[in-house]
Amino acid sequence: MLRYNNHMHDFFSKRSEAGEAAPNVLALIREQFSGEQRPLKDLSQSNPTKVGLSHAPELFSLKNPENAVYTPEPKGLFHSRAALSEHLAREQRKISPENIFLCASTSEGYAWLFKLLCDAGDIVLIPKPGYPLFEHLAALEHVRTMAYPLEYAHSSGWHIEVAEMESMLASEYGGRIKALIVINPNNPTGSYIRKGERSAILRLCERYGMALIADEVFFDFPLDDAAERESFIGEERVLTFVLDGLSKRLGMPQMKLGWIAVSGPPQEALRAKKRLELIADTFLSAGTPIMNALPSLFAQESAFLQELLTRIRENYLIYRTILEQQGSPHRVLACQGGWTALIESPAFFEEEKIAGLLLQQKGISAQPGFFFDMERGVHFAFSLIIPQEWATSWCREYKEFFDALQTQ
Ligand SMILES: Cc1ncc(COP(=O)(O)O)c(C=O)c1O
């Protein structure tokens, strides 16, 4: 029988160690609030099921007799993929059902793509500022991340530093970089990939043999109808995987349905699909009821999008009106789309301390910039999807909080 020395042996993998990391100060204060049942004003609330949307899509019934039948198709049920393909074609995004893989969420889509493209120790390039989940998604697949910077210029917005990206590819790490992740538009910066950036990115993918992963979960939420935006769906120059799902475009993260749209040079796309099929077949993650419901859910999409778009656009203006009065020390950063506005505020203290005081004094929770790897200044991510009344009153309280700090 094997005997383990407690000091030498650990049951667990290195990749799961973040699960035991100590909660940060802000999480501890929030826990205290919930223990005392004190209401929290969550200015960063991005859960679409918790913001009182009246056009919440009607839920489907499990009673549909088709749900009693299990047809294990690796890519997901054909009729659901066909409905998705048809739906996307109406938005000028052309992709055949053959090139679509249904999965449980875009997060799972990332995990599948990392399995497809990377061996242990390989690298994916991620945007900075960017979505914090990447670190975990990558670490759980033994994949490393390197961040390429986005820089802000007022008021034109965020730009990808393509030269920095290229110098990473040309460095000693270049040989291990397998994929470039772009978020179109990015979370939390709200910046779509510009035309010039797009051609530079495609050139780098070709030159350095990198696959492109484009996350388009926020694509359908432009702040302005005239926003410059172009989807990567169907891109043929390089091996491309576009991720999207129901979490944002229908506000239904609880239904767990995402997808990957594959395109690229024919030989590479074909090989990618064969391998992805093996991965998908191993998990068969997409649930039958939600796949069967997909065509009817799309019928409800436009009412949902309309209500949310109105809210997003009004909230952005509300934040600007309250925080950008003459002489105000705050600034609402330029943003072209998505569910988040970044607010730059005066640096009386460091971000974490300000966030803690804001919570304790006003009961306002707001995600600080360091959550998204922002290194300079004091920033908070404000949700654009909360009801306009919450946005107005909580943003006013945020302003008063800073006014009081200023006079101390
Ligand atoms: C950029 C981005 N991608 C993906 C996701 C996750 O989506 P899903 O619920 O499909 O995993 C989020 C969630 O906030 C996100 O911000």
Roughly how much helix do the residues carry, as a percent range? Answer: 25-40%
How many structural domains does the protein architecture include? 2
Q: What is the CATH top level name of the largest domain?
A: Alpha Beta
Give the CATH superfamily of the largest domain. Type I PLP-dependent aspartate aminotransferase-like (Major domain)
Bound molecules: pyridoxal-5'-phosphate
Distance between the termini: 67 Å
Shape summary: globular
Oligomer: single chain
**Chain-averaged pLDDT:** 95
SS summary, helix count? 12
N-to-C order of helices and strands: HEHEHEHEEHEHEEHEHHHEEHEEEH
Query: Structural class, from secondary structure content?
Result: alpha/beta
CATH architecture of the largest domain: 3-Layer(aba) Sandwich
The poorly predicted ranges are none
InterPro entries: Aminotransferase_I/II_large, PyrdxlP-dep_Trfase, PyrdxlP-dep_Trfase_major
EC number: 2.6.1.-
Enzyme class: transferase
Protein name: Aminotransferase, class I/II
Structure description:
Its EC number is 2.6.1.-. This is Aminotransferase, class I/II. With 408 residues, the protein is an alpha/beta fold. The chain has helices at 25-35, 78-90, 106-117, 133-139, 162-170, 195-208, 246-249, 266-283, 288-298, 301-323, 351-362, 388-407, and strands at residues 41-42, 100-103, 123-128, 144-153, 157-160, 177-183, 211-215, 240-245, 258-263, 331-332, 340-345, 364-365, 367-368, 378-383. 38% of the residues lie in helices and 17% in strands. The strands form 3 sheets. It has an 8-stranded mixed beta sheet, with helices on both faces. The longest helix is centred in the last third of the chain and has 23 residues, at 301-323. The model has no long low-confidence stretch (mean pLDDT 95). Pyridoxal-5'-phosphate binds at residues 105-107, 131, 183, 187, 215, 217, 245, 247, 253, 258.
